[in-house]
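Aim 2, interim progress: modelling of the protoporphyrin IX containing FE-bound target.
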Amino acid sequence: MFFQIIGTFTITDYLLIIFLTFLSYLFSFYYNYFTRPNPLPGPIPLPFELEIFIYGSNFKHIATTLYQKYGDICEIRFGGHRRIILSKTEYFENLLSTSSKSSSLFGKHEHTQGMDELGIFGRGIFFNSNYDTWKINRYLFSQAISTLGFNNEAIKRTNESFDELVEYWNLLSNSRLSSNDSNSNSSNNDWFEIDFLPWIKKFTSDIISVLTTGEKAYSMASYYNTCNSIDYIENSCRDDPTLNNSDKFIQGIISLIKGMIIFQIFNPFLRHHLPLIKDKANNVLENRDFIFKTLDDIIKKRKMELTNNPQKLKSKHDLLTYLLTTNHEDKIPINDEVIRSILLDAFLAGFDTTSNLLCYIIYYICHNPNVKQKMFDEIDSVFPSDISHVTADILAKLKYCEAIIKETSRMMPVTAVSKRVAATECEVAGYIWPAKTVFHLNYASIHMNEKHWENPNDYDPDRFYLKNDFNEFENDFDVENKKSIHNMDKYSLVIFGGGIRICPGKKFAMINMLSFMALMFRKYDIELVDMQAPLNTCTTFITMCLDLKIKIKPRKS
Ligand code: HEM
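Predicted structure of the complex, ligand included:
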């Protein structure tokens, strides 16, 4: 009967049905919009999640533009979700709360089909919104990376990696000089030109890799080989099949960070059927499988070592060894999949954040020669050239370098906008919101707000310069101390997030960045190749530097 009726339809009938379906979709879409709770200023939404084609995916740009146009609290529909953009510190109170499970604002990511497809969300720490599993994973992770052994290892590995980096730069500089190529990038006066971004990414990924898995990644060696085919670095360890893929693995992590956004902002239909998007989404999935397999192989290999030679592992201070031995001794029920997700988090959250911030530091100090000189003076006074390697005691004295890290993070936060998703009805900014509302905390605009910062466009690390022995990054952000130092409200500078989901890697990140600054700027003077070029960045989950050409020259000792 049904098919008989269908059979009588003409093409006009079909077109009419399509038109009416479209009309009813539009009607319900805009009905929901105009009857939404707590209507806020913001652009009128577009049907079929078309906003991505208008606003792009740079969420820092979206949030700052909306703040400028619509004020401290406004909204946008994006990626199929209503998003509330908050650009006033008072509104952060409930969102960055330290109260735990009861908080309906514990989750950081909207649950979508894309999240499930990617198989990363809901696991590990960063992408996990399940309080019970998150708590165990975060506890294990924080325990492992806060041990003295891990911190000392972090300093030792940074020293070693820097020595290696200097070796490659010397080799490259010498080979360019000897080739005497008139078209060579190296200029006279001992200045040597490099693309800093890939080098610092390889540098930090080598450190993260060895501290996370206990395995060397040889990313710098690989990159050196792509820069110079003459003096190819032979490395016997690279015969190991696990390590042969190591640089590919690091590249894979970078692509995964970039590719995840596709699963967040494109709806399943576009991801599965629109050719260009479909290809990109498939590449992300293929890459994810490769990353999972590599990590699984490393876990298997370490487990074998643990069985065959448990004594040898006593000297290891990496995250994986800690997780496996904790599993053995404390009987905490974590399986290999959980271990893999924690390791993956260390890679995802660990190396791109520090490497990008180091790029921004270089950009800003090169534009502010007085800051650069003051930094040189501090480094020279606490880390003289007769001391070969940086130590924890030296790092604790680098107060001006610490101020540079803060001021750079204020001007160019790596996490420009963070997110919370309501699990149940909740109160934020004086309104009651339904479950699933997505809130964006617009740190980038707050960091540049005249209400909190005098001359916010001026790069001035002195605003954070502590001349006493107090090391702010040693402790969790302490409201009282922070107020006494900056005399500002506690959310006016948010570098590592806040509340129970504050970055657990912040101490390690500080060790890593301060060590690099001390080693690099004790040895090299530095300039930008093009002082007129603006800082080229793009924001997805974090704000990434897209390129940074610099010139370096050994400093006179
Ligand atoms: C400059 C360096 C870094 C910056 C600016 C940074 C910043 C942040 C921020 C803003 C958050 C989110 C907090 C929130 O949503 O409230 C976060 C979370 C996190 N970070 Fe970092 N981070 C850095 C380095 C690191 C390093 C080196 C590691 C580990 C090796 C790390 C591991 C994590 C993890 C696991 C989380 C998730 C915490 C959770 O959801 O409970 N981060 N980080």
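Residues 108, 125-126, 138, 345-346, 349-350, 353-354, 357, 414-415, 418, 495-498, 501-505, 508-509 surround protoporphyrin IX containing FE (CB under 6 Å). The chain is about 55% helix and 10% strand.
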